[in-house]
Each structure stands twice: as C-alpha cells, then as structure tokens.
Amino acid sequence: MTALPDPISPLSRESAAQAFADILDARTSEEAIADFLLALSDRGETSIEIAEAARALRARFIPIDAPANAIDVCGTGGDGHHTLNVSTAVSLVVASCGVPVAKHGNRAASSKAGAADTLEALGLDMERAGAMAQQTLDDLGICFLFAANHHPVMRRITPIRRRIGKRTIFNLMGPLANPARVTRQLIGIARPDYTGLYAEALEQLGTEAAIVVSGEEGLDELSGAGPSVVVNVGTADLQRRIVPEDAGLPRHPIAAIHGGDPAYNALALRRLLKGESGGYRDAVLLNAAAALVVAGHSPALTEGAAVAAEAIDSGLANALLDRWIAYS
C-alpha cells in the first residue's frame, strides 16, 4: 500500500494530486485514508487541495455532454437547517426559462430529504432518470445526474466517510465534480468562511462563471431570511452581499422553509410550482434570479426574479416536471 503524505502542512499541487489519485484508485489503506482526511479537516483544507481532489474525481467520473450554456445549481449540504429542496426547485424553474440545467445531486446524507429522494417522491424513477440523463438534457433541457451513478470510485470512500462521522474535503466535492462538466454554476456552501477558499478552487479548475454563496446563518444557498455572502468567479459579477430586497423580495424566517421527509418536501415543491406563495416561493425566486444572472439570461437580480416568477405562474415549470416524470 502507498503511504499518504503527512498533511500537517499545506500540500503542494503535485503532492495533493498524487494523494487523491492514490485514495481514489485504492492504492492506500482505509485507515490511512481516514487519518489523512481527518488531519486535513482539522488543519483546514487549502484551495489547492480542494481543487486537486476535485480534479482527481473529475478524471474518474462517467461524463455526459452538455450545451456550452448549461448550468448547475447545487449546494454542498450539511447546513443542519433541514430545509425544503430549494436548489431542486430552482433547477426546474431555471430550466423552464430556457437555460439547460445539469442538476448534480444525491440522496440525503444529513438532511431528511435530498434532491434524489424528493424527485423520486414526485414520481421520477431514479434509475431511468440516471440512464436517460443525456436524453432528457437534450430533449427537455434538464437532467438529474445521480452522484452514485457517475462516481463509481466513491463507493469505497463513502463507508470511510460514514465511519469518520464529520465533514471532510469530500463534503465539498459535489458541486466541483459535475459529470456534465458545466462551466457556469450557482453553488451554496454551509460555511460562510469557506466561500473565498472555494471560489479560489473553482478558478483553478477553469470555471467560466460562478457565484459561491452562503447565508450568514450557515445556509447553503442565498438566504431568504437575511444577508448572504457572495464571491464571484470568472465573469460572474454580483454584489458581495445580497439580501432578498435586492431581488425585490420580502424576507421570511428560515422556519418558513423548514422541510420534512421526501413525501412532505415533494408535496411542497408541487404546490410551489402550482403557484403557492410564501417563504419557499421567495427563496426559490431569489436563488433562481442569481442562477439566471450567472447563466447570462438576466442582467440583474430583479429581472431574474421576475422571469422566474413568470415561469412558475405561467405553468411552464410545473409542465416541465410533468414531462420529465413521463420520461421515466
């Protein structure tokens, strides 16, 4: 078995690349991997280490092809607020506005209902959705890239992460390893202090345009309750601090978007797409507005929120969900 470097000090790009290649290619023991990941987490990962971990995972995923203007809307999860599925709803709304969305996601790890769980409760067959991801992206402008289908090398790492029982660098990997190789993203992180570090990693990975956001209360999306930290990457150009009023939207307490099990979240998402008003709708409009700006589809948050609201109120987003389910 290959020995991993001692991460007491930041790793060079070459050392980090080799370490994550050894981890993902099973050239080192599970005990050594656990010790390495814990030591990185305790010391605090660098942008180079995050970028090289993502690069190693990208080199080993099962890809699909996406249009140049495709976008992903994804959070790292783990914010502990157990909210409704905001990024999943945003993906449907944005796709119904004509922006291709390659949604990367998984089942719940720390929440009650992940994107895959809620979409499944809505009637999407996860196995068929995964197998037909390329076709639905081409035909409908949306697909769900179920992480378990596209990252076979993670099968060995997942049990190790569960045994560790705390955040590691792999909790940051989802948005950085989209199998459609999107270059435009809205990424939510549950740790405001990591937004700058994460943005640096995205720049090293050649991202064309992205915004990394974190609600100041530790929400892995733009918060509908108050201010959010924003860091621009590439050609993205939003203000560094966003409040709901910047998109012409009112504030709501986080309790307004508290979720439940997959059936509960699915029902809430369907009601939202049928025009129900409230905190969930406004959180989705705020994040959809930011995604539409990053995609180059809207010039500013207020215009993006209006476009997103029209996509819901006209029935386009709900109809898209129905057509997607019909494919499965």
UniProtKB/TrEMBL annotation:
Domain of life, source organism: Bacteria
Pathway(s) served: Amino-acid biosynthesis; L-tryptophan biosynthesis; L-tryptophan from chorismate: step 2/5
UniProt GO molecular function: anthranilate phosphoribosyltransferase activity; magnesium ion binding
Coiled-coil residues: none
A GO BP entry: L-tryptophan biosynthetic process
Residues engaged in binding anthranilate 2: 161
InterPro entries with a match to the protein in the record: Anthranilate_Pribosyl_Tfrase (IPR005940), Glycosyl_Trfase_fam3 (IPR000312), Glycosyl_Trfase_fam3_N_dom (IPR017459), Glycosyl_Trfase_fam3_N_dom_sf (IPR036320), Nuc_phospho_transferase (IPR035902)
Residue positions binding 5-phospho-alpha-D-ribose 1-diphosphate: 75, 78-79, 83, 85-88, 103-111, 115
Residues at which Mg(2+) 1 binds: 87, 221
Binding site for Mg(2+) 2: 220-221
Names of the cofactor(s): Mg(2+)
Pfam families in the record: Glycos_trans_3N, Glycos_transf_3
Glycosyl transferase family 3 N-terminal domain span: 10-60
Family indicated by similarity: Belongs to the anthranilate phosphoribosyltransferase family.
Record protein name field: Anthranilate phosphoribosyltransferase
